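Sequence in, structure out. Go.
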Amino acid sequence: MFFSHDPLVETLLFPSPSEIWMRSLNIFILVVFGLIVQFGWNRQNKIQEDLRLSQEQGRQRLNQFQAILDGTSQHTGENFFSSMVKHLASTLNVHYAFIGNLIEQRTKMQSLAFVSDGKLLDTMTYELDGTPCGNVSEKSQCLYNGDVQSKFPKDVYLKENDIKSYLGVSLVDMNGSPLGIMSIMDTKLLDENEIENMQSTLRAFAARVEAEMRRIRVENKMQHYANKLEQSNQDLQDFAYIASHDLKEPLRKINILGEMLEESLETFNDKQKKIITHMINGANRMNYLVDDLLQLGLIKTKPTTLVELDLNKVVSAALEELDLQIIETNARIDVEDLPTLKVDKVYIQQLFNNLIGNA
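Output:
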């Protein structure tokens, strides 16, 4: 075999140890440089992909936040609960959304609103025992992702509708006592990466629902008290009618006897005449008080009427009614000139009676 003695050929085919080491070093440097470049390229792609995902998640969070604002602030009135479940199901992209109210000593749940694929379902009532809702009512939150049917085999609704995932939160009053629950369900598993965000969204909706349920309870209590007050006022009115009838009859007899005595005043001395006059005036005053009692009974249905009264006459009537007390206590009443004012006749007379009598 023929070998050329060309130095270049010899260097290429028969390198010296130092040349072999240099070539290996160069190859190693190239490989390392290539790996660094590849790592940098992959790192840049990863950063760009993370940035894209972050931007996409940010847009999703922003959309969900806007949906929470829309869902929890705009809906009011009669269709509040149905609007809330529709908005919640749409925001979280689930098949079912539910709001329930605890009834019958918290042993049963009654739906306030239940949406399935965007359609409202009829009101339903069911036993809590053996259902995920029963667990939610005892805890603040429950999540079953994929195992809800195995956890609650007695709940036929889960099986009939092939529900695989369930997330629910409890609704409580101001004292922390359970009011009901709010939940979402789906025929697919919930995205593990989105569960925390879904929980936050559900709690935001639940807070608004709690406030509405509390408001309704307060209104119901106020209506209950209003009904009791109305019944009390009716009882007062009935009492006033009865009292006015029962009290006026003996007063009528006193007036008749007084009129009969007045016809024979000539036969009485001055002291006896004064006693008879006081008796008649007292009976008339008592008759006015009975009428005033009747007016108090009608205060709910009849507005207060203000009339112009000469307060000097009002004070004179009070002094006449209290003349015996004035004599017994040897009191002296000084009355200056009083104006004429628009007042309630019943209350102004009672006011002066009390002022003078207490003094």
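Check: Residues 80 and 212 are 9 Å apart (CA to CA). The beta strands are 96-103, 108-116, 119-120, 125-127, 141-145, 165-172, 178-186, 307-310, 340-343.
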